[in-house]
Each structure stands twice: as structure tokens, then as C-alpha cells.
DUF4157 domain-containing protein
Amino acid sequence: MLISRKVNLIGACLGFVTVGFGAFSNPMINPESHTCPDVQTIGGQICRGRVPKEMPEEAWGQFGAVAYQAAAEVMRGNNAEPQALTETQKEYLRPHFGDLVDRVEVVYNATLMEDWVAASFKINVGESNAQVYGNTIYIKKEMKEKDFEQLVLLSHELIHCQQHERLGSLGNFGYHYFKEYKKAGETYRNNQMEVEAFDFEKEFAEWLSKKMPGSYRPR
């Protein structure tokens, strides 16, 4: 995910979740209910829609596995049908991603997760330009197939598609993304899954600038 070339919290994808784990994934839980455990416990904080700072990496991973799959369902149900990459886009991206470019789909003019009103258990991802759920990329703007910045954006998101295929499922991707986010001190850019995407994005932008002279902007 790119944020007008400025990055806020969890992304690339990823900027991918503003999800209420309690009220969102389990409508039987009322965060205001007296049936929640004590507020000082991790369970009590989760029940009330809060992400406790002391939650271990494993717990973040388990939450991410559920939240990412739930978010994918919401995105699929509340956006237009995805479309294949164009032949022009594939021409630029195939040398780096092979036949992955034939498997991914893109939704343009998408409503992204942080635009949804959800319960208070969330990770604030700020204002994002794109998000990935499996092999579906959601882009906030309209399609501009020969636009330098949009092609670079696609290259970043395709790295996340590669990661998803490598890990084998939405749940596994969510698990590892959230766990790496916690391991990185809850710092988006230090998440190893984002480090990989941003490193490639820079490399791709330099390569693409040779194909589109005058388009390059330093990363």
C-alpha cells in the first residue's frame, strides 16, 4: 500500500485492516456488556474492543488470521467485481512476476477498509491508496494503465500477492503479517513483509524509469 508516497501504520497490503474483532466477527459479544472479563485482563480488553499492548506476537498472529479473512469477505461484498490486469500492465510487470500477472485481479475506485465503520478493535492504517486480499488488489483511484505511479503501486501489491501464494492461504498471510507487525514494534515500515515489498518497489521504479524516461521520482 502506498499513501500518496507517504506511509502510515499498517499497510501494503496491506494497510489492510480496520476490523472489529469482538463486535465484528462475533455479534453475540457486546463490548459494553457486564459479561466481559475484568478490564485489566487481556481477554477483558479484547472483549471491550481494545488491542492490549502486552498481547504477545502469537496472539497478534492468531487475531490476524481471523481478521484478514473477515476483511477479505467485507471487501469482496462491498466493492465492484475485479478485473484482470490489462495487456499493457502485464507487459511491464510480467518480467518480474511471471504468470502471477495472469492470476491477480484488480478493483479500481475501491472503498478500502479504513473507510468502513467497524468496532473499536482495530489497527488504524491511515489513508491508503491500495490494499491486497489474497490475489485481489483494491486500488482507490481509477485505472490508469500507463501511469508510472500506478504501475509502481501494482508492483508493491504484487509482492504481497506473492507472499500470499507462498504462505498458501488468507489465514496464513494474516497470521504472519500481524505477527511480523508486532515483532517490528508495531511499526509498519519495519514489518519484514513490508520491507520486502518496499525494497522491490524501489528496484522496480528504477527499472521502469528506463522504460518511461522522465517519470521517475526517488523513493
